[in-house]
Amino acid sequence: YSGILNGIDTAMWNPATDVFLPAKFHANNIEGKRTCKRFVQVGLGLASEKGLKNGNQVTDMVPLVVCITRLVAQKGLHLITHAINHVEKLGGQMVVLGKASDVRVEREFEGLANLYNQGSSVRILLMYSEELSHMLYAAADIVLVPSIYEPCGLAQMIGMRYGAVPLVRKTGGLADTVFDMDDHSQPEKANGFVFEGIDEGSLNSALDRAFSYYGEKPNEWIRIVRKVMEIDNSWSNTAGKYINVYNSIRVRR
């Protein structure tokens, strides 16, 4: 049998033309991505106009992790809540954007928002906003997708389109689109960070490695950013795969 992944609308999700962004960018010139990151940091109170937050300098060397998702069990809620804590411990920043349909989940994340949103590292935004989604993908250094199961997944594809390096759990479509930077068996595919377990320790390890790359290998990080932006996850590419499958069936007949 053949499995074919979904695609994304690359006209709608295009950092070179996106009307929601304060600055445009593309794989050959990613300077606008830094502008988008600063815009989001200031807009959400994670940095001031002068680059200071609570007296501390906030620079591009602070990784920004973004998780845009429905807040349901499938998406790995316990891993999302743990990531918030671990990213803060690592000295990074994190923004969660999503809505919960379950009242208990909503209350849990409201409690987390009350706990974290007054600080300088984390913002939990319990809403859906198309405009903010575009800006967050553009601002993100890392897009987190820790799903328990995921038939395909679009967040990692959109994130890559906007130069956000994916950090995902190895399941379903996530395993088919994201390949670990430290997997030396297929270095040509390496485009993100992958963990297999559903435990916090597995997530910690992936976050630690991603932060290490970001802080200690800046040139390599920029190379990854440009690489993921050039990956073709468009519907045109997907359509071509369907045509190939149909043609193969016709030949066998």
Chart the SSEs and their pairings.
Elements: H1 31-43, E1 52-53, E2 56-57, E3 64-68, H2 77-89, E4 93-97, H3 103-116, E5 122-125, H4 130-139, E6 142-145, H5 155-161, E7 165-169, H6 172-177, E8 193-195, H7 200-216, H8 218-229, H9 235-252
Description:
Keywords: Glycosyltransferase, Transferase. This is starch synthase. Its EC number is 2.4.1.21. The protein is of the alpha/beta class and 253 residues long. It has one domain: Rossmann fold (3-Layer(aba) Sandwich). It contains nine helices and eight strands. The strands form two sheets. The protein has a six-stranded parallel beta sheet, with helices on both faces. Strand 7, helix 6 (172-177) and strand 8 (193-195) form a beta-alpha-beta unit. Helix 1 (31-43) crosses helix 4 (130-139) and helix 2 packs across helix 7. The longest helix has 18 residues, at 235-252. It is globular and about 60 Å long.
Notable characteristics:
253 residues, 6-stranded parallel β-sheet, EC 2.4.1.21, 43% helix, alpha/beta, two-stranded antiparallel sheet, Rossmann fold
From the spread of the alpha carbons, the general shape counts as: globular
Q: H/E order of the elements?
A: HEEEHEHEHEHEHEHHH
| Domain unit count | 1
Residue fraction in strands: 5-15%
CATH architecture: 3-Layer(aba) Sandwich
- Looking at this structure, what is the CATH superfamily? Glycogen Phosphorylase B
Instruction: Please provide the count of β strands.
Output: 8
* CA(first)-CA(last) distance: 16 Å
Using the coordinates above, name the CATH class. Alpha Beta
What is the CA-based Rg, rounded? 18 Å
Q: In DSSP terms, counting alpha (H) and pi (I) runs of 4 or more, how many helices?
A: 9
Instruction: Trace the largest sheet across and list its strands.
Output: 5-4-3-6-7-8
* Helix fraction bin: 40-55%
